[in-house]
Amino acid sequence: MASDVFTVRGIDKVSAAVRRLAALYPLAAAQSLNEVAELTMTDAKDLTPYEHGVLKDTGKVSEQAVPAKLEAQLTFGTDYAVYVHEIPPSRARHPHGQWKFLETAVNKREATFSQDVGRGIRERIGG
């Protein structure tokens, strides 16, 4: 099975408040980031093209954030995931979903990422 993965990194875009909270509360930051990653994966699965649902069923947060490494990885585990992700609508033969399903979900979440992670941290620390 191929392991084609693309990583979205944007810690430079995270607001100063979230960085400050993450430094003070690394476990809460990791948990909050994982929660946002799971929500993003749910959005991606909702957009995933399918005929039988195999590709959709393989979507997961394959690497969870931990206090020492505040990164999460979202993957789809078929050897054709990248192909389906990149096939334009004019060539697609899928009755449901859309192309760029993971990229679209990540880009949609970008606008509220800092606020979502920050809110999760504050909820976890009681603030």
What secondary-structure arrangement, pairings included, does this model have?
Blueprint (H helix, E strand, L loop, with lengths): L15 H9 L1 H22 L6 H4 L2 E4 L9 E3 L5 H6 L14 H10 L2 H13 L2
Antiparallel strand pairs: 1-2
Helix pairs in contact: 1-2, 1-6, 2-5, 2-6
**Rounded Rg:** 16 Å
Report the total helices: 6
Mean pLDDT: 84
Main beta-sheet annotation = 2 strands, antiparallel
Instruction: Assess the beta-strand content as a share of residues.
Output: 5-15%
Structural class: mainly alpha
* Strand order of the biggest β-sheet: 1-2
What are the segments in which pLDDT stays under 50 over at least 5 consecutive residues? 1-6
Helix content bin: 40-55%
- N-to-C series of helices and strands: HHHEEHHH
Give me the count of strands. 2
| Mass-distribution shape | elongated
Number of domains: 1
Give the termini separation: 44 Å
